[in-house]
């Protein structure tokens, strides 16, 4: 989809970006000065959790996306221009209004601290500032990475056709993309080197182990018969002692359990006898009550007949 047949919107999500330490960075304002189709000083914001930039073709929706991409450190090739100077307003028609332009992204960190990132084009080259202080491009990009924005990973700026391109990638290409997004790709050389060192170390360890194992087997074979005889005698004596202790232990507990169960049985028998006596008394009372109830029923029947 191109800008010419896009008459709906360019959408920009400014939800908080998660940092590795679970802090948040929220894009609150975008300021532009003579950037592409935006002449003069333009302030967009305060932005919400989700924002939609809508308008007819040629109204500057894609240029607003380019402004965000530019201040986040995107390369010139991703901004639809050949040279940095082409980003200055009027350069596309050969009439630049100024020798410079800039875009500033104002973030709120942890909902309390502010941090400004500014990228400018001056004299055909980029200049970078953080909170007004001039810094190198590497420092600028590293600081963005610390708040969760890694332009090399391409995981927060989704350009037209990017989703389709990912879907058309081979599994190997998608794996490479995910490694780049996660940052693990940067460790690939170290990983391969350490893996090779690990393989060599494992082989040396295995060789040393097998050699040691052979020596130990020879020593063990030499002492095996004597050790087995001594071990058998010792274990036999220990077994006999433990058997005596075990039988005495069982006898002690059996006698104790017999006394306990006998005592418990006598108590339970007394309880059963008491319950049976109460039951007999209750049965007698029940029989009397039934007689009384029968007499009352007959008396009521006679009264009803009269």
UniProtKB/TrEMBL annotation:
Its main location: nucleus. One of its GO terms (molecular function) is ATP hydrolysis activity. InterPro entries: P-loop_NTPase (IPR027417), RecF/RecN/SMC_N (IPR003395), Smc1_ABC (IPR028468). GO terms for biological process: cell division; dendrite morphogenesis; mushroom body development; negative regulation of gene expression; neuron remodeling; sister chromatid cohesion. GO terms for cellular component: cohesin complex; euchromatin; nucleus; polytene chromosome. It comes from the Eukaryota. It is found in: Chromosome; Nucleus. Keywords: Cell cycle, Cell division, Chromosome, Coiled coil, Mitosis, Nucleus. Pfam families: SMC_N (PF02463). The keyword Nucleus applies. Residues 27-151 form the RecF/RecN/SMC N-terminal domain. Belongs to the SMC family. SMC1 subfamily. This is SMC1.
